[in-house]
Amino acid sequence: MSNLDKEYEASLKSIETENVVDRAFYRPIGFRIARMLRGTGITPNMVTVISIFVGAAVGFMFYHDNLVYNICGILLLVFANILDCVDGQLARLTGIKSAIGRILDGFAGDIWFASIYVGFALRLSHEYGTYWFFALAVVSGLSHLVQANITDYYKTLHLYFISKDKGAEFQSLEQVIARHKEMKLGINKTFYFLYRGYTLLQVKATPALQRMLQSLHAKYGDDIPENVRIAFRKQSRELMRYIDLLTFNGRTIVMFIVVLIGEVWVYFLYEIIVLNIVLLLSMRKHEKMCASFIE
Description:
Order of helices and strands: HHHHHHHHHHHHH
Number of domains: 1
Largest sheet: none
CATH superfamily: CDP-alcohol phosphotransferase transmembrane (TM) domain
Transmembrane segments: 42-62, 68-86, 107-125, 131-150, 242-261, 267-283
Shape: globular
InterPro entries: CDP-OH_P_trans, CDP-OH_PTrfase_TM_dom
CATH architecture: Up-down Bundle
Protein name: CDP-alcohol phosphatidyltransferase family protein
Number of strands: 0
Pfam families: CDP-OH_P_transf (PF01066)
CATH topology: Four Helix Bundle (Hemerythrin (Met), subunit A)
Keywords: Membrane, Transmembrane, Transmembrane helix
Number of helices: 13
Radius of gyration: 20 Å
């Protein structure tokens, strides 16, 4: 493996949690941009903030029932996601990391899709003369938040079973609460309060996972044997094909198609019905897997 290949791999959280589209398209481009930005003084958080503004403009583009606007919206969303890759890869290449940076990174994606759902609702309301589409937008947004929350938890857990270094972002609810209490009043503490609620939802939604962690901790402490780590990751990787449908690429491939054909109402049904079914099936399989590791 060349030095460049090693550097590229070091810029990723783990090749095991990257899906095909990310590995083939987004990550290589993000890596090249991150290498160019390294040493310029531009921080990962700066890149994240830029991505928020780029992604937030997509809703305006998708509001218009116009192919040119819609193609521009697609390109903006692709660019926003490239920037989302850049901030994380730049953080790993430079060592400039922070808990707030990770929270801000997740918040960025929420802003993009919130703007898109509002844009879709306005477009459909004007087209059909009813504002009931905003109810679909709200349900879609809430579904999206829960799906992203659980998906992030599963992927971070997988990293935790690779190594302590890779899984450094995986924290228990108790650790998050303790960290929040230590923080001084300010915007960072406000963001961390939201993250505290985010973590609480993850914990409440995964009882078997929590019992597995408690069992492993009681038996091995912080030193989980390699054979257990490998066995867990083998089963976890098999679930990634379902979980990947709940990620950015799983959403946007369908979104881009419905936008280009002009039937954006289809996306709300996809988000609310199809992706929620995928979420429930994934959670059921993941909980069953975790239960198998409890002795």
